[in-house]
Input
Amino acid sequence: MAVRNMFTAYGADHSRLRRLVQPAFTARRIRDLRPGIEGIVKSLLDDLAAAPPGEPVDLRARYAYPLPIRVICELMGVPEELRAGLGRCADGFFDTTITPAQAQAVAAEMQDLIAELIARKRAEPGEDLVSRLLAGRDEAGGGPLSEQELVDTCVLVISAGYETTVNLLDQSITTALARPDQLALVASGRVGWADFIEETLRVEAPVASLPLRYAVQDIDIAREAEAETEAGAHADAHADPRTDAAAGAVIRAGEAILAVYDAAGRDPRVHGATAEEFDATRPDKDHLAFGYGVHLCLGAPLARLEAEIALPALFARFPHLALAVPPDRLTPLASFISNGHQSLPAHLDGR
Ligand code: HEM
Output
């Protein structure tokens, strides 16, 4: 909350801060990242294949975790020696079990590391996003991005690109291994990996909830839903389950809001009695895993691309992959932000 970037900004400030980063996330720019992502995936799979035979490997630590981090560090031009520190801080951002003092220490360390990253890019610019933000700002004589906004924008993009996609990979792999019937649907071509990934986003939103927003004016939720219906978002106002559910709910100006993205995807009023069940063939996989509206996740196409490359490659390389413990023995992370597992022990050869 204490940062000054698009995530915490409103109105014109939000548009200005988002516009500066947006060019790095266009469809073409993201497509261009494919060969780099494929290269990282291949090297991670080679490392896994070199594990001692018969011993379980932790697929979260050795596959789901390093991929998004390497991708975001390449995109941002983070040198090798700063990566471990930034990773530790990004993990701290999503860890809701630490004390306020620890959280402050994490935020301070993150600011120092980003300041160091920016100083290096000023001295030695490259083709990366930080250098481009810096060039835009320095050429414009300090505007339109203040130094604090520059630092906090880097904090946002790095931390948003870390654990979020890790959880998407973690949850997709877990479901594929726990539900061989669903994996078989992909193998047979009845559904694509893109369907499998969307259904994972719906049932297991990687960001369960995200602190914190404040209402700038009174928000009557039912009225907002109705207005949207009238604007054509839903065909029939009376059939929109959100309108009835929210009747009478008003968030007052100044009140804090915790948006709970993972509840939305499993809402039986939207997805019916089977809302909690993973079914990649389900025609309506509507979810809020990437948020909604003007703050809609900027990195969603990148996250989807990483998953669309990493998942088929993993299952093609290790067709007998199997969890080393029953799925219900996997321990969830304690964080109320991050929806993943503490570890994902698996046998590469199925035994
Ligand atoms: C599966 C992976 C991801 C998930 C589940 C996710 C989820 C979210 C959510 C829920 C929001 C808040 C949206 C709202 O308030 O309505 C958000 C915002 C954002 N995300 Fe992601 N994210 C993911 C990956 C990424 C990646 C890879 C990047 C960048 C490299 C990224 C960058 C951002 C940024 C910059 C924002 C702020 C947008 C704004 O405030 O205008 N995200 N994300």
Notes: Residues 6-7, 18, 72, 156-157, 160-161, 164-165, 168, 206-207, 210, 261, 289-293, 295-299, 302-303 surround protoporphyrin IX containing FE (CB under 6 Å). Residues 125 and 131 are 5 Å apart (CA to CA). The first strand starts at residue 57 and ends at 58.
